[in-house]
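Continuing the batch. This is chain 6 of the set; chains 1 through 5 are on the previous pages. Same settings as before, nothing changed between runs. Recording input and output for traceability.
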Amino acid sequence: MGIADIRNFALVGHNWTGKTTLAESLLFKAGAIKRKGTIAEKNTVSDFDADEKERGGSIEASVLHLEHKGKRINLIDCPGAPDFVAGPITGMAAADCVLLTVNAATGVEVMTRKLWGMAEARSKPRIIVITKMDNEQAKFDEVLASLKEIFGASVTPLFIPVGVGPAFKGVVNLLHDTAGAPAEVAEQAKDLAGSLVETIVSADEKLMERYLNDEKIPPEEISGCFTKGLMSGTFTPVLCCAAEKDLGVEDILDVLIEDTPSPADIRVKISRKGKDGAVEEQVLEPKADGPLFAQVFKSKRDPFIGKLSYVRVYSGTLTHGESAFSSGGSKAEKFAQLLAVQGKDTKEVPSASAGDIFAIAKHEHLNTGDTITSTDDGWVIEKPPFPVPMSALAVTAKNRNEEGKVSEQLRHLAENDPTFKVDVDPETHELVIHGTGQLHLDLQLGRLKKIGIQVDTKPPKIPYRSTIAGKAEIRYRHKKQTGGSGQFGEVNILIEGNPGKGYEFLDEIVGGVIPNNLIPSVDKGIVKKMAEGVWPGIQVVDVKVHLNDGKYHPVDSKDIAFQIAGREAFKQAFLKAKPVLIEPVVHLEVVIPSKYMGDITGHLSSHRGRISGMDQMGDMQVVKAQVPASELQNYSAELKAMTGGEGFYSMEFSHYDAVPSNVANPVIEAAMKRQTASEE
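Output for chain 6:
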């Protein structure tokens, strides 16, 4: 099967919009499975993980495939809960087009808008599928109007329903089926078909001119322009179906193979750093006989196979047993197990070419975002962007003898999920897990429990930092005589703030007053003191240090003497340069029914939050705010209590900002007390 015969889709949507049910029906209609599974029976192809069966919904992106009328469709079924956003990110990374599901009864919801924005930011063509058209509360026209209002004029119906709710019995494709439309929708189909063609041809100026001059446009030209408009974002078709009853499903399959881009239409950028540090870029031609370029978009540890790396090929061919390089490895590796994937089932294949999605087994060094290439020349595909996980818990083993085991198992979980991080805080020495929300963290902790590991959790200590708001210049002499050779080092430094640019050390010594070999010692002493903190345990950041003078002794000056001189000079200068305690601030988005608006904004304001914007989303309100992370450690429970579980939120790291003195003083005093206690 050639590259032009492949289609790659990410199936995304808000929770409970019927993504997995639609995937199951597409597989069944295409003959890829003999019997449809259901969420209730816990036997669908994509929700195969034990946690997904227990929860009754998707947690990770699942890879599926089917064939229809000589074309191969790779489908990535993605979770819709905000806490499991890694799924749609990985799915979109591998896909050429996004299918966005919207429930006919509930319309545009929290994640609908977020997922649209993600697809738009990645320049992914979008097709909207209104699902559950047989629901008693289904309202096609209202949902369509809402989609147009929120997402713009590009949103255009390609299908219209024949009946709505329990009376729903099928669809009419406005591009191909209007002549045979049932009488009850014939007039509507005729009117909308004209508007549809006008929207499609608007993607091509010459075609639009011919259309406006009343020239009859051949169907094949309209079809070609359909794909062009889809790829440019000027056209977003709306389909509809009732997947449980298989109504409209085959019509969707036809659209997916006839009117959407193939991998041959997709151009991916590759880049590398040149010798001069400048970034070089190229556009990759998607050819099966071209140089090999593939990317790992997801990793998972299978209990029977071991580590599985899910891969999309953009150029070239990878053959069983062939060696290739990966951006995460240091040498060429042999790829012996290439697998076609259908949910949890895998089947060995001899090769994978441009456009293919498959898995590689048992390669421990392959991680999400890695590029696989035929040559080791530094060219890579950009890694998919994942949000910084901002919900955190400090974890300790109930059984002290299992501390190593806890850390090891958590790191295995982090391998599978780029939005789940595990680290040991260098200041507090706490083992901290980071996720996208409380549900996400509970899931990972539940996985530990299932393998017999018990842990205690608590909110982690806030990673405060310190910096300076002014300047200070200090001369410091370190002199020590102990009988033999002594220690001598004298430095003069000027320090100033360096907002957002980290630490900079400037060597401004002239005339050799400090020998070249001892200047790095001053830098080393300063860096060590910044890590320790002048206020103990609170790292110093964003400072520029000018070393502009000093003295040395030909016998007593040595590395340790200038390290100490640099350290002590920095400490004194820091305390004179208007030191400031700074804290992490997050960008918070809260989606709530409008009736809770006052409660939410008032609560955020009382927690030092600054409201930065508000958007209307149907009868829902989106509140955007900048809030100190220390004020949000229990926000999941607080929001649930305020909205009765109707509110959702997401947050990501924004920046560090100064802490008000009434909050900063107790933190600094506690740090100084810890130092005093440790010295006693």
